[in-house]
Fold:
Amino acid sequence: MRLFFKLLLFTFCVFLVSFSGVSQPSRTNYELTEKMKQAIALMEIEDYTSANTIFRNILATEKVLPNNLSYHFALTLYHIKQYKNSSNFNKKYLNLTGKAGDYYTQSLQLEELLDQAFTEIRQCELCDINGYQLITCTFCQGEKNIIEACSKCRAVGIISCQKCKGEGVVITTDTFGENKYQTCDRCSGKGLHTCDLCEGKKQLNLVCNACLGTGKESSKSICTHGHNH
Ligand SMILES: [Zn+2]
Ligand SMILES: [Zn+2]
Ligand SMILES: [Zn+2]
Ligand SMILES: [Zn+2]
Structure:
């Protein structure tokens, strides 16, 4: 009788384990595999944009990701010309799998293609380092500099003397404790002198912070490097 109960308990435990430990994750795995298949099928018909969207969705929702996903995602990113992102995911794939990866040769080929793309980008003056078209800086209108009213003299060009505090006289105490009065040599006794920040120009010519003085900013359009397609 006791043995029967032990057996029953054992069977029950096995049932519990198989139910909670196996069937649950296999369902998510199934969904993930289906999504991957769908994306790869889209890549085969060269719809890289849709495939990329599916991969993005997988990346955003799944906690555990198959290594191969990094490579496939990198390939779609290459085709939609997001070279920097593509390179990041391709490197990640190579780091994760090394020579043992299912797509080792393909990922090396992708790396080569990315190198070519980056070389073309470096040689092009129309785009930024990631291959996005450069447009005129909207902040400085391409002027590279921003002209601002001088903050030190409030655009007057003259300030109260910094040495004598505008008094025109400098007071010093001698060894006997007596005050000595001398005409200020900084302002020649006028109490005012030319603003040292703007040098009397009343305005400041500042390097545009938005474009760091290049006069250009990156747009969201991918550069064609001067080709018309
Ligand atoms: Zn002075
Ligand atoms: Zn000034
Ligand atoms: Zn600018
Ligand atoms: Zn370009």
User: Anything to note?
Assistant: Residues 2-44 form the longest helix (43 residues). The longest strand covers residues 216-222. The chain has two domains: 24-132, 136-162+193-220.
